[in-house]
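## retry 2 of 3
previous attempt timed out at serialization; input unchanged, resubmitting
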Amino acid sequence: MGAYLAKRLLYMIPILFGVSFLVFSMMHLMPGDPARMMLGQQAAPAAIEALRTKLGLNQPFLVQYIHWLSNILRGDLGTSITMQIPVSAYLFPKLINTLILAAGGLIVCVVIGIGMGLISALRKYTWIDRVLMFLAQFGANTPGFWLAITLMWLFATKLGWLPSTGMYDVRTGPSFIGLIKHLIMPAFATATVSLAVIARLTRSSLIDVMNAEFIKTFRANGISESKIIWKHAFRNILAPLLNMIGLQIGYLLGGALFVEVVFNWPGIGSQIYASITSEDMPMVQAGVLFIAACFVLINLINDIIIAFLNPRLKS
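## retry succeeded, writing output
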């Protein structure tokens, strides 16, 4: 297991370098001049050129990338062009808010998705199975932003049960209950597609296992059905299920970015959107890099858990 962990950690290094290069290249190719943004549209050309030289913007692309990467490795994510404050101090609390939203979505899709899949598999080909799978199919084809707007219209505007906006910084927020109230609708909107994927995978995997020969042997030996399901069948579908859940975490992070804009959730997605519109490139670069690094780290944790559950996969 130690060799496997070391190998996976070594694999992360070129992946993170590749991600950083793609992020920097993407931002470098976008239109807009950071020096002009900092000095304003009415600034003299000589002043703009002097600032470009000071910031190193006249250097070749690779020189700029190496300088940017060396700063990142030292923990310096740069300074916001529009706010003139360190990016790391401003963006880190927003990353926490985004992770809270993604974690809420993960809980929703795991609990409800696995529950729906189990019920459908154990009631296969009945009307309950058909209704649940129809809902899963509907959820899989529903855009997250459309569902977010619909939930907001129904539960905030019409019924007044939940707040549509006003989420606060979790470090200074009033209460845990307030956080849950703000989290329910964005978490559901973020989790719908992943929920449907997990529900369908749980159903099909459990039906396959329940028809396997070793399950028939257990039944012939008089082992109770509940023991067969929870001790033997569910354990067999756990590894592929965890693998799929790990893949869905990346999707949840991506979906959370769009849902944040709809609910005005103070996370990285909302900040990236605001920074793109104001051409604050250091903020956008750091935000995208944060999300990409989280995605790589989560996949690593997922691979380790799966390898722990199924040692044969380590090879």
